[in-house]
């Protein structure tokens, strides 16, 4: 992380130590001097170029291998798919790039810290400064939320104060060593940042395009934070604010045409990230799931079986390519805007789960019914349990259907206790001529230590004070053909 800080301070940005950040450093580097400069730079770094970690999907029960594709081609993501202790080496023995979230997210943390330190001195109106501060606090909270859920154990009120989280960096200074704050400390920071973001957005009084977050976006993310903490009352409070303020409108898929993510969809609150592409290329691409002749990994049969009778999402969220279902949300045809989004449907799901946890079954039922009736052909063919454990199970499965392939499933599996499950991933060994030579079956058990990502080895090498996460070697059950 030290290298990330130095790179950003000296490369993209900036030199926060400069007393006059108006001056031009050289012909290729200009220090931001106006609010608009900060807004445009933040927009590029945090909302255009930034990308959420889709690769967690390879570890869930929503993805399975294509048994026909060669082992060599599937090996690119085998370390993730089989939950290996070392994910930085792929199945071919080559260096893997699947563990880049640490560097990407701390880069954003540093950038937002820089904005917070310097926006007050920028040339511009106070309300514009407030909006930029709101964006900076929102992005820092979003980054830490991803970091702590990827690289630490799930929040548990009984242990959060003692469990190792991730390093907490609130400035732009470079330190030789640093340690990991607790999970509780990081969650407290996320909560504080989101509340500050809400205040700044509301103080600004400004409304910008969907590429910019706003108070409702921050409230939706805060409701997710409270959901993960099992703070049901606060989750209900913030989701209710989102639903009431936006009118709670959802896009009825029976009336849907064209892309799902666009400016006419009333439930979209905010978009970000480089739009997905069919094959993907470069650092901003979604996972490259194609081999030379076949899809390497696609939608699991287990996932397809969860769709409801007449569920319009089955065709909207999954597309068949080269004979196998793949996530449509990873394709450019799904969006006219960003590759990722915050939308009102999550607010209904978050509130439904919180209501059900409080045994407010009637309220939970109405929320999940509201979502389902906008996603199926004929509501009369759908039976939603009205109470108890089965209603909770339906809501949990509805999260899986609605939010599939958006980075939610891994964390939902990690945090659940009521519906914890063992995941089995089969890996078929296929030689270069297409012959199947055997199979390997790998298992991930509930509360498995491999739910927690390893700290990148480069970070461990740089910082002797960093403590690594404990993970297990995963050995397969083998069957030869």
Q: Outline, from the CA principal axes?
A: globular
Radius of gyration: 22 Å
| Helix/strand order | HEEHEHHHHHHHEEHHEEEHHHHEEHE
Kindly estimate the percentage of residues that lie in beta strands according to DSSP.
Answer: 5-15%
- Total strands: 11
Number of helices: 16
Structural class: alpha+beta
Tell me which oligomeric state these chains represent: single chain
| Average pLDDT score | 90
Low-pLDDT runs? 3-28
Q: Which strands sit side by side, in order, in the main sheet?
A: 9-10-11
CATH class category of the domain at 242-416: Mainly Alpha
The assigned CATH architecture of the domain at 242-416 is: Alpha Horseshoe
The largest β sheet comes out as: 3 strands, antiparallel
- First and last CA, distance: 46 Å
